Amino acid sequence: MKDPWREGPREECGVFGIAWPGQTVAPLVYLGLLALQHRGQESAGIATWSEAGLHLHKGMGLASRVFDERLSALPGSLGIGHVRYSTMGSAVLENAQPVAVPSPWGTLAVAHNGNLTNAPQLREELERRGVRFRGSSDTEVLAWCVATSSRRTPEAAIRVAMERLEGAYTVVALVDGTLFAFRDPLAIRPLVLGRIGDGWVVASETCAFDQIGAVFVRDVLPGELVGVRDGQLHGEVVLPSPRRAHCVFEFIYFARPDTNLVGRNVHRVRRAMGRVLAREHPADADLVVPVPDSGTSAALGFAEQSGLRFELALVKNRYVGRTFIEPDPQRRDLGVRVKLNPVRELVAGQRVVLVDDSIVRGTTSGKIVQVLREAGAREVHVRISSPPIRWPCFYGVDTSSRRQLVAAELDVEQIRERIGADSLGYLSQEGLVEAVGLSRAELCMACLDGQYPTDQPQEELAGRMALEVAR
CA torsion angle for 265, 270, 271, 275 (degrees, to 10)? Predict the structure, then answer.
């Protein structure tokens, strides 16, 4: 699980769905959510379907705390699940997913990863038609877009909804004995399809398949709607795809290292980022130290390319929860020290290359540099395996304002001074593309270059609080 004390970027959400005739799938959905827990720790939920109808349980916190023994109350051979980090709408139970709403075909449950950049306009229209919203998430807007359709079947209603949605979305839904999964036409967020026995599975990442013994089959295509009923799968490309725009930060940070994205293992991509980074920004130093766990793969690559010694000289305490995460600077500083402890015998008197995946707000990086200096490091050279983040993301990441981004205001030298490093080097955009192994035209790099794959959203319409104003 990624650490809540980190300055960011924050995760989005994780979705999981399974249809396996004759099986009780809730325990498998739960295992899938555990595998996707790194994508969101604010809330978790599971919905299943049996002949008796839809069954739903969700709550705030980690999946392991939300469910416990409650899985037995979720019967059925079809299920969907969700782990959330709020990128539109506040962190309250009303916004936990799956979202369930009444529909002409029975109760519809929906779980979603991404951000709808036209959610306020859609919500306003739905409210004029008499819909009363319980929460402030774009997922509820999406669910009502389907549930209020005049189309005769849920498949047809989803097709119409997909034509109206703007932004990034990967969605799993459950209604009337059918599991649905669909994806935006740019494929900004990941969604994969797998097989387990004579059943089918969809998930945000392939690591969730490994957790339950499922086998990867293929990516859900851009603009595709997949439906599974009575064990039979049907896929249909509803929206044409003008281009691919895979989020580059899935490779840099969000996805688990054991996940495969677009046919590429994430750990190997991050290791390649570190090798390119060492070529672009070598350091006269003694050892390479990762910020665990986000910088580990890239630090291995940096050490391989540079010939420097690799050391796990920062040890993470994995058993500290959110107790120490407080807003005032003094307690936040304690949070870093409780989470990370330096191995003094390894860093004392040494010139250290500190490798991490990103600098977003510039607060935590400075504290880690300070921790290493207090442990006796003679020099600390910071190397970042992504380019500077200068532009907000409106597609499912909690950085929807330039005010949050230190690189939007300061140049590299000013950031170096702020974090107290002896030197600072970022991976170039060209080096990043080389390491990922996809063409730049296939990637969304808007947070790095300001080139958005859709019409550029506005913060007041697509930011985290966009629908709070509307309530």
Answer: 140
